[in-house]
Specification:
The protein is of the alpha+beta class. 22% of the residues lie in helices and 28% in strands. The protein has five helices and 19 strands. Strands 1, 2, 3, 4, 13, 14 and 19 form a seven-stranded mixed sheet that branches. It has a six-stranded mixed sheet with strand order 5-6-7-8-12-9, covered by helices on one side. A two-stranded antiparallel sheet has the order 10-11. A hairpin with a 2-residue loop joins strand 17 and strand 18. The longest helix is centred in the middle third of the chain and has 25 residues. The radius of gyration is 22 Å and the shape is globular. The two termini are 26 Å apart.
Length: 344
Amino acid sequence: MHNIGKCLVIGLFCILNSTIYAQQHFRIMEYNVENLFDYEHDSLKQDKEFLPSSLRGWNSFRFYKKVQHIAQVILAATGKHIPDIVGICEIENERCAKALAYQSPLRTLGYKYVITESQDPRGIDVAVFYQPATFRYLGHQAIRIDFYGTRRPTRDVLHIMGQVVSGDTLDVFLLHSPSRANGKKASEPYRIAVAQKVKHIADSICHNRKAPHLLIMGDFNDTAQNKSLQDTWQSVPPQEPYVSSHYYNLFANEKRGTYKYKGEWELLDHILVNGRMLQENSRIRVKKHTAQIFSPPFLLTTDKEYGGEKPFKTYHGMKYQGGFSDHLPLIVDVEIDIPQTLLF
């Protein structure tokens, strides 16, 4: 009996010690889904390009097929765990968000979402889908970007806050910066303006919270070398020592792209984190070497004009081809410490 009791004590000691290091795997995904419009006219928006009467012939069948395709991509990116947070760019309205959450193969997974309602003339918005069991919603804000009449309005930036299993707050920013229409240089000041506005809010969180955990993701419409990222965010590749209030671009050293234009791949989608998210003693930390461009074969097609492959889009020009998007998604994994009280 004495030996049995001793073994039980040793076993319990080992269990307690092992639970100290128990972790939850938490997956984050960002995806510009390219023009997820419904098929009904909104009199307040310039959405006539995506109506049954348009040259594109957009209709309910094509809409729901695209919704199914987006769900397929999210499920394919699951691995051992479904994505806990999915940031979606280029979604028109809440009807589209509801279709994705409740009328697609995602409907059994319990996703909740928040979506902006911005002043973008076409009705383009961003939305964050999240798993309420792993990301307890605390609140959100839509950050409006004002160009004071110098340019048409752009998409709001979505800032959502949630509590993760460690008890800490994770702040997620999702943005879709102004496009390069009318030229990269001419439009650059507007992307810089978006970066400045969001960084000001992020800096405030970093300076006023004891242990801030921030993640900024989306379609920046800029590469890591452009001013909005390099000068405004002052983002750099992950490198020690990690400073809590500095921002690190998890894709700064990525050689591949998420978008192809005239035969050239460009990395326009990014995920940034503050230094706290990279520190070993943080209870929410990025898993090293998990940042990836998700590019399964079904998301690509042959580039007959320039060679190689390119994203398999919904349309080629005005011709419907039933593809997915002109962007490829990003994925990053995070480790979250589980309190011992939750393990018994």
